[in-house]
């Protein structure tokens, strides 16, 4: 698979994750703050009452790291977790989960045809939106899955607005992520895609404007600690509450 100027063709991304699935948990586990930051984004959804009586969506769940974060933030919620990579999903399903967690094999574009319908009381989308063909369409689609007044958190890399963040990302990608990915799988395609897709993704300000154009209200951003400061962000937005009327 050839990595182009903006990363892999989007229809090839699930296949690249299939190749890296078995080594993925080991590699992200070596990334300081990876799981802690996913939990930060889940908690920034401010889900009330530990999720009791609520229905949540984890879209782009991968091997289940974001699902675990959402479960910790809302242990009493019904959680639907979906991913386009069958191999990543197999790794997720192989772990122990309570009965309130369900996994679905689906691209974000195909959720409805795979039986995933709203409304959801919150959505967590980790490392998802830069990997879709048409982010504007999928932003609107995810908005339609939210219950009016409810919030989505996009946990995402964005470095365009900060020279320091771009330098950090390039150094970490070429000095650590890509070499370790190749050593683990003997195929660096996924990790070169990861580097390139982040470099070419919206800056934080541009992505927030994109969310607003899609119809989200209360759009806000919070970043992370460590080397991921101004590299990884939580982008928050809500479906307008007045739609309940």
From TrEMBL:
GO MF entry, a single one: methyltransferase activity
UniProt-listed Enzyme Commission number(s): 2.1.1.-
Keyword vocabulary terms for this entry: Methyltransferase, Transferase
CDD domains for this protein: AdoMet_MTases (cd02440)
InterPro entries: SAM-dependent_MTases_sf (IPR029063)
UniProt keyword Methyltransferase, yes or no: yes
Enzyme class: transferase
GO biological process terms, semicolon-separated: methylation
Superkingdom of the source species: Bacteria
Keyword hit for Transferase: yes
Record protein name field: Class I SAM-dependent methyltransferase
Organism this protein belongs to: Rhodococcus navarretei
